[in-house]
UniProtKB/TrEMBL annotation:
Pfam families: CbiG_C (PF01890), CbiG_N (PF11760)
Organism: Marinomonas vulgaris
Record-linked Gene3D superfamilies: 3.40.50.11220, CobE/GbiG C-terminal domain (3.30.420.180)
Protein origin, superkingdom: Bacteria
Residues in Cobalamin synthesis G N-terminal domain copies: 43-120
Protein name: Cobalamin biosynthesis protein
Every CobE/GbiG C-terminal domain range: 129-256
Length: 261
């Protein structure tokens, strides 16, 4: 649930615009709260329920209101703050771990606003890459459902993804190819020699996968390498996993991010 909180008439109009366009178009459940009363109690309760919050007001009001209920960046829901004219989007809380930075970038892009990120790498544009591994002849629904789950966990949509990536032995995997075609992504595969340098960045290492294909993790390695290739063209930042490998009965999936200048 996204709760959009506005305190002025102009802010209320912007909140309705975000709800009707951005949220509705992306299939996101949202509610506009105009001058909620009692203000502090209702906002704090929404925050503690884990609702994603968009405030259209001064950052000082937000911080004073949420300060008593802030726990940690690993628990708190993401919080964005916008000015009432919709010129600036500020990811205020849970930027990396909670996904506020990615979410803020999406909202800013939708509004044609300036994203104001104060965490690491503020002057670079994020590029998101998807890595997947699977059993031979894995059905499309196993791949697609896992992919959509991964994106939802980081508040991303298919349109945010730059490419789908895997190991070269999957270059002819029918339904990986079909998934990439359905969402208009390039489908890129890499050799074990290309993937091996990503090993220090993996969240886990599977000896079974290594014995089977020659790398310790297909999904994470492929996503990281694709992000690295994008970033290395314009800057020297390292790629990073934003979603460690998740899996279902037949496939694995991971998300990485690189930064393009």
């Amino acid at each position: 649930m996204i709760r959009i909180i506005a305190l002025t008439p102009a802010g209320h109009q912007l909140a309705q615009r975000i709800e009707a366009n951005y949220c509705h178009l992306n299939g996101l459940e949202a509610k506009v709260d105009y001058k909620p009363k009692p203000f502090a109690e209702s906002v704090q309760a929404a925050f503690q329920r884990g609702e994603r919050l968009v405030f259209i007001c001064a950052t000082g009001i937000v911080m004073r209101t949420l300060a008593p209920v802030i726990a940690s960046k690993y628990q708190d829901p993401p919080v964005l703050v916008l000015d009432e004219e919709g010129k600036f989007v500020i990811p205020l809380l849970s930027g990396h771990e909670g996904g506020a930075n990615e979410w803020g970038a999406q909202v800013a892009s939708h509004l044609g606003a300036q994203l104001v990120v104060t965490t690491a790498k503020p002057y670079l544009n994020p590029v998101y890459t998807l890595g997947m591994g699977c059993e031979r002849d894995c059905p499309l629904d196993f791949l697609e459902s896992l992919m959509l789950d991964a994106l939802a966990q980081k508040n991303l949509t298919p349109a945010d993804i730059q490419s789908l990536n895997s190991i070269d032995i999957k270059a002819d995997e029918t339904h990986l190819i079909a998934l990439a075609e359905k969402y208009h992504w390039p489908f890129q595969t890499y050799s074990t020699e290309q993937l091996t340098p990503m090993e220090p960045l993996l969240s886990t290492r599977s000896d079974y996968v290594y014995k089977t294909v020659g790398v310790y993790g297909v999904a994470e390695s492929a996503a990281l390498l694709a992000a690295h290739k994008v970033a290395s063209k314009t800057n020297d930042t390292e790629p990073e996993l934003i979603l460690n490998k998740i899996k279902n009965a037949k496939a694995t999936c991971a998300l990485a991010r690189g930064f393009a200048g």
